[in-house]
Amino acid sequence: MLSGERTDLGDYLRRQRAAMCPPVAPGDPRVRRRRVPGLRRQELSEVAGISVEYYTRLEQGRAVRPSREVLQALARAFGLSGAERDHLFRLGGESPPQIESPDTVIRPGLLRVLHALDGTMPVTVHDGRLTLLAGNAAASELLAPLTGGTGRYARNIAYQAFTAPGLADLLGEEGAELFTRVAAAELRTALSRYPEDTHLRGLLAELGAVSGRFRDLWERCEVGAWRSAVKRIRHPRRGWLHFDIEMLHDAERDHWVMLYTPRDGA
């Protein structure tokens, strides 16, 4: 940054305030009499629920470290996007807030990419709860043995790892064992991010009740950090194939894109 942190925060607040529409109808004489665009400090402070004196100090760089509550109130008052809110928090000397739960809707552009790659590679998208949200036709064909279950957790990757009957046929014995280990570790990571999530808590209880393998792995307390891998997977028509797996993260929605790049030229 070219200026100091306090000036940067004040500049950002002033620019956001100037971009806001005054709380009166267009054409009202009070709008025409305004010398500068946007809201006045008094109006913004009322929307945010903080004193005008304190807000003025923020803009002037005289309040060094606003609280997280004040930053959140300002983000709501300005109607900031997730990226803009995170930027505001960093300018205020705070780490951006964590999202409360993964988004349930995939970005339309990502869905188009998914289907455009159908003739090139299998692609899936799952959320931070490990729930499979979408997959292209190539992924559905390749991973069919994992998608035959029913019930509340049938689309959860961790649940599939410990309950799908065809796992060893799909991945081989060694591959199936590694998959269950990764699944347990990734579930622990998901729970650490969403500790009060009732769906994840229910999944943990369910797996603990039905799978001895899961109980053994859970006691290891491993945490997932796998973002790249090479997997050997049995294709239903082409037999054993090797894939380079890469995981890409959409942090704002907490969606994970898994790309299965074939190594065998298939």
Question: Which terms would index this structure?
Answer:
about 270 residues; alpha+beta; 434 Repressor (Amino-terminal Domain); Beta-Lactamase; 2 domains; 5-stranded antiparallel sheet; 5 strands; about 45% helix; elongated; DNA binding; Cro/C1-type_HTH
Q: Please report the number of helical segments.
A: 12
Question: What portion of residues belong to β-strands?
Answer: 5-15%
User: What's the CATH class label of the largest domain?
Assistant: Alpha Beta
Globular, elongated, flat, extended or rod-shaped: what is the shape? elongated
Q: CA-to-CA gap between the ends? A: 48 Å
Please provide the ordered H/E string of secondary-structure elements. Answer: HHHHHHHEEHHHHHEEE
The low-confidence parts are none
Could you say which structural class the secondary elements and strand pairing correspond to? alpha+beta
Total tally of structural domains: 2
What would you report as the Rg, rounded to the nearest angstrom?
Answer: 25 Å
CATH architecture of the largest domain: 2-Layer Sandwich
Profile the largest sheet.
5 strands, antiparallel
Strand order of the largest sheet: 2-1-5-4-3
